[in-house]
Amino acid sequence: MTNNLEQAVRTAPTRRSNGLADFLTGSLIDDAVPTHPIADQRLYQPALATLTPEACTADLRATWAEAAGRKLFVSGNVQIPRAPQNIAAAYTASTRTVVAAPPKIAAAAFAYTDFGKPGKVDERTEVTDLGATLLAFKNGVRLNLKPTDFEAGRIRLNIRLGGGTLTAPADQPGLPLLANVAFTTGGLGRHSVDDLQRLLAGRTVGLSFGAQSDAFSFGATTNRADLLLQLQLFCAYVTDPGFRPESLRQVHKAAEQLYQRLPHTPEGPLQLEVAGLLAGGDPRFGLPAREVLLARSLDELKAWLAPQFARGPVEITLVGDFEPDAAIEAVARTFGALPKRDKKPAYTEARRLTPPAEPLAKAYTITSEIPKALVRLYWPATDARDVKLSRRLRLLNDVFADRLRVEIREKMAGTYSPNAAPDLSDTYPGYGWLIADATVAPADTRLIADAIKKVAADLHAGGVTEEELERARQPVLTALRESARTNGYWLGSVLAAAQEFPERLDWSRTRYSDNESITAAELSALAQQYYVPAKVSEFIVTPIAPAAPKL
C-alpha cells in the first residue's frame, strides 16, 4: 500500500485527461470527494505507519466475532434442498474444524541476482528522428530504448523470445493455451508464486506472459528503482521456470469454468470450431476440445519451452521514464549475461496456412435462456505486411462500419449495434479477414445477415465517396496524433520488434502522411477486390431454451 501511494504521487503529473475525466465523473456519481495522490498519501501514510501485526489481528478477531451473529449468502445455479438449514449446518460443522497456526515463514531474499559476467554491447544505432536507440549485445540479445516524459515515474517493458506458436508441436494441440495459464503460475525453481508475492511485496514489478503467434512475450510496468529487479525476475523465468504441479491444477479449474460456459454463449462455437475452420483446421487457431486441453502436461510444456528459452533470440524494449545508461547496465547484468542466442529461423513451413477455398455457411445452436443470437460474416482479405495496403483496408473497414450503422441502426430502426473490424495477420503470409457481426434477436438473424451482406455488396459495386472517406479519415488522423504521445504506441507498434522488423521504424515515419494521401478511388478499388458477395462466409449462432427440470 505504501508503494502504491508513492507511485501514484510520482505518476500524477502525467496522468492522461481521459483517465482523469473518468475519475472525476466516477467520484460525482459515487457522491465522493476526488482527491489528489499527494492528499491520499498524507491521509493514509500516518495511519499505515502506526499499524502492527498485533493490532491487525485484534481488529480481525473483533470484526469476525460470532457474538454479533452471522449472515451467510450462497450464489450459483446448484439446487440445494432445504437451503437455509443445510447452509447453516455446513457452516456450523466447519467451525468445529481444528485449525493450527501456520508455520513461521523465515525471511528470505530473491535468489536470482547473478546470471554471470555482465554482457558487452556489440552494436549501437541511434535513430535520432524517433528518439530511439537500438543496441545488440555480444551474445545476440537485442535492446531497444526510447526515453519519454509521457508517464512520469513509469517504464514499460516488453521482451520477445523465440518463435512462439510457430514452434508449437502440431500433435499437441492446446499446448499454447496451457503455457498462457500455467507458465507464470508455476513460479520459479527456487521460489513458488506465494514466495514471490512475499519477496516482491512493495516493489513495482509485474509479470505477464503469452505464447504469441511468432514469439513468446513477457511484459510489465516498473520504475527506475525497480528496473533491475524487474529484469532479474524476467531472466529468472527464462532460465529457471518452476513448472510446479499446482499450476496445472489452476489450468484444470479454469478449463472447467471455461468449457461449462462455452456451450451457452454465442461466442462459444466461434472459439471452438470457426477459428480453426477459417485457418484450414490448423490446431494453433481457436480452442481445442476440453479433453484435448486437459490431456496436455507440464512435461510437454517444458519440452516445448526449454530449448526456445535456452537459445532462442531475445529482443527487449524499454519505453518511458528511465536513464539509458542505467537501463543498458541492468540488461547487461541479466539478459546480456546469458549464453549466446541463435538467430531466428524463417519458419517458412510453419507460417503456411490453407484457408478454405470456398466460402462457408454454418448455423450453430447453444443452450441459453437469454434471447440473443449472433451473426458473423467473413470476407477473405490478406496479411498486414504491406503497411500501405493494410492502412487502406482499415480505413475501408471504417467506411463499411459507418454504412452498417446508418443502414441497421437508423434506416431499419434497429436496436442492434453492428461491428466491423479487419483481422490481418502479421505472421501468416496472405492470411486475413474483413469481419462484420451483430448481436440480434433470434428471429432477426436472417434479416440482419442479409442487411450486412447488402451493405457490403453496395460498397463492392458502388465504391466509396469522397465525403465517406473524409468522415472516416479524420478520427484516424486525430488518433494518430494522440497516440504519438503515448508509451503504449511506441512500445507496441514501433519498437517491440524494431530490430526483427526494421521496416516498422519507417511505418512510424509515414503513418500520418500516408493516411492523409489515401484516395476514395483507392478504397473503391479495394472494396471491389475484397467485398466480393460470392466469397463471404456466414456463421449464425442461435439460442435454444434449456429443457424444464424434471420435478
Task: Please tell me about this protein's structure.
- By secondary structure, this protein is an alpha+beta fold.
- Helix content is 45%, strand content 15%.
- The chain has 19 helices and twelve strands.
- It has helices at residues 2-11, 17-29, 37-50, 53-63, 83-95, 175-185, 193-199, 227-239, 245-261, 267-278, 290-295, 298-311, 324-333, 387-411, 445-462, 466-483, 487-495, 503-517, 520-530; strands spanning 121-127, 132-137, 142-147, 155-161, 208-211, 216-222, 314-320, 361-367, 373-380, 419-424, 432-440, 537-544.
- It has a seven-stranded mixed β-sheet, with helices on both faces. A five-stranded mixed β-sheet has the order 8-12-9-11-10, with helices on both faces.
- Helix 1 runs antiparallel to helix 3 (37-50), helix 14 (387-411) packs across helix 15 and helix 14 packs across helix 19 (520-530).
- The longest helix is centred in the C-terminal third of the chain and has 25 residues, at 387-411.
- 33% of the residues are buried.
